[in-house]
Design a protein that fits this description.
Layout lengths: L3 H22 L5 H113 L1
Helix pairs in contact: 1-2
Amino acid sequence: MADASSIAYDALKMAVEHVLSKIREGKKLSTEDLFIIYLGTIVGDLREIKADIARLDNKIDKTNQRIDDIVKTLSARIDDVVKSLSARIDETNRRIDETNKRIDDLAKSLTAQIGEVNKRIDAMQITLLEIQKLLIELVKTRQQ
């Protein structure tokens, strides 16, 4: 079944052919005849415009498809970069955590060693004080 547009086009085509036969016969044209000729030219232009619009729509659809493809490709690349950077950041954070743990362990070890050195210094001070006392007693005993 034909659509209304093609039926109207066919009817107008027949009317234009009728008016053209009047022109060939040299008959006088009425206002309606001139109007039909005018409509015939407009319809031809409209068909060309419709064809151009359809062609442009097709180009736009293809361009949109290319844009969509590029967006998908770029999104995939961006996702890959994000994953890669996230993995590198995670690895760096892991290494920082290990370094911090080693620093904490070293700080504990050094604190313990400093504590031992302080105990030895305290013991040496006590020993020196006892030696000092003994020397004082020795000097006192010799002086008497």
